[in-house]
Amino acid sequence: MSNQHSLVLENISKAFTQRGGTLARVNAVDNVSLAIDKGEFITLLGPSGCGKTTTLRLIAGFETPTTGRLLLEGKDITQQPPNKRDMAMVFQSYALFPHMSVFENIAYGLHIRKLPRTVIQQKVEGVLDLIGLQGLGNRRPNQLSGGQQQRVALARCLVMEPRVLLFDEPLSNLDAKLRVQMRSEIHSLHKRLNITSVYVTHDQVEAMAMSDRIVVMNSGHIEQIGRPKDIYRRPISRFVAGFIGRANFIDTMAEAVNDDLVTVLLLGKTLTVTMMPTAKVGDKLTAVLRPEGLELRADATLKQVVISQAMYLGSEVEYIVSTGEETLIVIDNDPRASHIFNEGETVGIDFAAETVHLLSN
Amino acid sequence: MRRIVQDPVLATALILVVLFIFLAIILPLIYTIRESASAEGLALFQRYLTESVYQRIILNTLAMGVMVATLGTLLGFIFAYVQVKVKAPFKRLLHFIALVPIISPPFALASALILLFGRNGMILRGIFGTRCFWGEGRSCNDIYGLDGLTIVLSLSLFTVAYLNLKGMMQALDPALEEAATDMGANKWHIFRTVTVPMLIPGIAGSFLLLFVEAIADLGNPLILGGDYEVLATRIYVSIIGLYDTKAAAVLSVILLLPSLTVYLVQRYWISRTSVISITGKPAGTPQQITHPFVRWSLVAIVLAVCFLIVLIYGTIFVGAFVRVIGVNNDFTLQNFDFVINGIGSEAMTDTTTLSAFATPIAGLLGMLIAFLVIRKTFPGRAALDFATMLGIAVPGTIFGIGYILAFNNPIELTLPGIGNITLLPKLTGGRAFLGGALAIVVVYIVRSVPAALRSGTALLSQIDPAIEDASISLGADNAYTFRKITLPLIRPAFLSGLIYAFARSMTTISAIVFLTTPQTKIMTAQILNEVENGRFGNAFAYCVILIGIVLVAIAILYLTVGSSSGAERTLEGGA
Ligand SMILES: Nc1ncnc2c1ncn2[C@@H]1O[C@H](COP(=O)(O)OP(=O)(O)OP(=O)(O)O)[C@@H](O)[C@H]1O
Ligand SMILES: [Mg+2]
After folding, report:
1. What is the structure's pLDDT at B281?
2. Which residue, A141, A179, A223, B532, shows the most beta carbons closer than 10 Å to its own?
3. A260: domain CATH number?
4. Lowest mean pLDDT segment, chosen from B144-148, B182-186, B276-280
């Protein structure tokens, strides 16, 4: 465990006693281990109730783990109260202090650190500049738009220059356009300031766009950790593949195995794909095919499918097609270049071997 | 839990709060119950539950409770309905008059009613030339007894039901009634099938609250009861007349049963079945009742009640400035001289000082318990809330007895080799610590904290806990967060808690009547003394001064606690 790690979670679990009815204890977070590098932007991604917020609150210190250890730059902080941890958190609901001005909101933590007035003034002005809210220091939070409020919430944390920044779905209360804009703002701020960040979201696009690494969670445990590209291309489970982006799953079987090269029969084609860990001959496998990796062509030599739905979306065309056994989604990303098919047509389906990813069942 | 233990300030606060609630609420109750559970006490139980005299008293108490709860809730409902759904003249004035009974010094309403409608009353005798409403001799029906008590108690308590139901009616989504209208239902049908069912929790809640307050009331039955005896007066007589704590304790436990039952029903049933969907801001305005007969009947009832309130408070006011109202109506300041410069001045300063002590403590304690109960997890969280609320669910007289029993001797700890250590000095009776003032302040606090706690929890549970988390995440500890964030955010609840605490302390009688000592004189006890001796002028002067002090205190609280930051507005605006 070298000191290039900023934050380390070691076998962290958190059990809650369910209130009302049964007193069963449920593991909201289940044996989570994670090492976050200095300056890394890491995202916890997963469906509702999978334990993302709980993990974040464990890191912040609002919850104490039932078992496991938490290290900040090599120091055990498991028992440290939240206000003593050198972290700051941005909340989904902004959580600005409604009875204070923007300036007072941002200066709040600095006052607690008992910094001299002039220094506070200077720092607050600086961070207001940084987030593009110059001159709004005297406003009350309720006199700001949602986007501005979230910027103040971010500024309030940034001004503390914490070792770790924590975000709990900070953009989910904003409208779609603003969300995209704030997303890139947070991204570039991170690139500039390089503060270790843990970001919680259930929006996979957001996760892909901002993160150095994504942690996919499922009912309390970690399914997969990896760079966005790796997680998208090589999901380790059906759950991850289905959660990150859209995917077609086709049942198949290992016809031949040569080291980590596995040969399968798929949509009328025989192909050989790398698989890690590899399979044995005769193993039942699931092939993951991304909709944009599939291609429809009027070509009678290919496997024939019937188009049951065609939706023209401008930048792409989305087809639902049926092979007889399976229903597949096909996305044509460049409708200008290719022919647009109609519902009811029978066409050939094609794909490149390198877009296929195999999972063992 | 670990979180609380980790923060020494929080842990200390929690321990102190629990200790206070235990000593001030639970311990006196335990003593009362223990006293009643002695062999002698159990014999008394048997006697009281079988002898017809006592069965009568128990029935009287329950009958009074039901009557007051029914009439008071009905009045509250009509007032609220007129405010929300009926076009009526002077609505704001009527609203204001309905609020006046919040500050009703005990005995004031009853005394005024006796002077107006008693056998020698200015209206009954003076205008109608009769002594009885009907009948004469032994069958004479006068103002004394159940009917008079029902009127006075309903008048002094209906405001609670009114405010409660008004809030609910305003929060009712008018879309519901509109939907019913669209389906062709007429107004009466809507009223029966939509409006009333939606308000059932509010109606039931008000009913139970009024029931508990009514059966606990001591002041009114004492002077208006005549030979209609209730448990509270019987307890009073047992202590003041006979100093029979066993009998008083047994009667207390009997009185405690219906009060606690109602409290439990209220807590675990009513609060769970609330069907009202409060969506923040209801869309559209409530429909107005236009049917002339319905409308004018309702308005007439409201006007009549308001007239009665004005008449009663007018009598109090005028009665304070004349020699003997109705008999010798010469203007005089003698009554005020008696209170301000004479015997009464001590009571006036003592009561005000002690109330002023109790008020901030009760307000802060209420907010602190609300904070602990809503925001922190620790074992016994629900129990703390429950025990604190007992402060108002338990009739005041019972606390009076409990305090006598629990604190009439110092509580000492005998350590072998060291001797006795006094943990708690003697708080009540002769030569009590601070002349009994400490016990009285504690009772004031106990009786006021529940209201502050309720408004505190109601408001706090609407405030996003992330705001406090944010403060902690920025480096503040729990104490700093409570002072700088929580308290300012629940300022409206704090303010109403303070106002309630002061008004309640200044006007309470049942809980402190056994605790006053020659060194500590309390206005309400003095008023009782004056009324019992027929010196209504002095009593009314006391009442006017008491009302004046409460009004001034409310103004001061508004100016200091209520203003400046506009936290309320900010909260409504929502961040
Ligand atoms: N204080 C608590 N007491 C009991 N159970 C809890 C508590 N907090 C969370 N849980 C449970 O733990 C599980 C994980 O909750 P968590 O809030 O971490 O999910 P999440 O991934 O953040 O979900 P969302 O995307 O909906 O915010 C849920 O089943 C939740 O009901
Ligand atoms: Mg969450």
Report:
1. 42
2. A141
3. 2.40.50.140
4. B276-280
| H or E segment to which residue A308 belongs | strand A303-312
Which residue of chain A comes nearest to B466, CA vs CA?
A: A95
Indicate yes or no: CB of B3 within 8 angstroms of CB of A81: yes
Contact B466 A160 (CB under 8 A): no
pLDDT above 60: residue B2: no
Query: Do A39 and A55 share a domain, yes or no?
Result: yes
Which CATH number do you get for residue A166? 3.40.50.300
What value does the mean pLDDT of chain B take?
84
Q: Which two tokens mark A242?
A: 């289905």
CA distance A262 to A274: 6
pLDDT tens profile A310-320? 998 888 899 99
Q: Report d(CA B140, CA B129) in Å as an integer.
A: 14
Task: Give the total number of structural domains in chain B.
Answer: 1
Q: Mean of the pLDDT values across residues A238-260?
A: 91
* A196 lies in the same domain as A287: no
Q: A254 and A202 share a domain?
A: no
Which atom belonging to ligand 1 lies closest to the Cα atom of A19? 4
Q: Collect all residues of chain A within an 8 Å Cβ-Cβ radius of residue B475.
A: 83-84, 109, 112-113, 160
Residue A269 CA from chain centroid, whole number = 34
Backbone angles phi, psi at B555, to 5 degrees: -60, -45
Best CA proximity match to B58, nearest among B217, B263, B254, B262 = B254
State both tokens at B55: 């069965």
pLDDT-derived band of residue B140, with 50, 70 and 90 as boundaries? low
Which CATH number is B228's domain given?
Answer: 1.10.3720.10
pTM reported for the whole predicted model: 0.85
Q: Is the pLDDT of residue B125 over 70?
A: no
Walk across the sheet containing A261-266 and list its strands: A256-258, A261-266, A269-274
Q: A99–B570: do the CB atoms touch at under 8 Å?
A: yes
Crossing angle of the two packed helices B8-21 and B344-375, in degrees rounded to 10: 130
Q: What does the pLDDT look like over B274-306, one tens digit per residue?
A: 444 443 444 455 566 667 788 888 999 999 999
Nearest CA to ligand 1 atom 5: A16
- Between strands A41-45 and A196-201, the pairing is parallel
Q: Give me the number of domains chain A comprises.
A: 2
CA distance B154 to B149: 8
3-state secondary structure B495-553: HHHHHHHHHHHHHCCCCCCCCCECCECCHHHHHHHHHHCCCHHHHHHHHHHHHHHHHHH
Question: Residues A16, A135: one domain?
Answer: yes
Judged by a CB distance cut-off of 8 A, whether residue A14 touches chain B is no
Task: Indicate whether A103 and A224 sit together in one domain.
Answer: yes
Bridge partners, residue B173, by sequence: none
Q: Which domain holds residue B185?
A: 2-574
A54 CA to centre of ligand 1 in angstroms: 6
Q: By residue range, what is the domain housing residue A337?
A: 247-360
Pocket of ligand 1 (CB under 6 A): A 16, 28, 46, 48-54, 202
Cβ-based neighbour number of residue B186 at 10 Å? 10
Predicted pLDDT at B272: 59
B478-513: pLDDT as tens digits: 999 999 999 999 898 899 899 999 999 999 988 888
Q: Which of A202, A224, A242 is the last residue of a domain?
A: A242
- Tell me how far the alpha carbon of residue B367 lies from the centroid of ligand 1, in angstroms: 28
Helix pair B344-375, B381-393: axis angle to 10 deg: 150
At B161, the amino acid letter reads: A
Residues of chain A neighbouring B565 (CB-CB closer than 8 A): 99
Are A281 and A257 in contact, with CB atoms under 8 Å apart?
yes
Share of chain B above pLDDT 70, in %: 87
Instruction: Please tell me the predicted confidence (pLDDT) of residue B429.
Output: 74
Give the DSSP H or E segment for A198.
strand A196-201
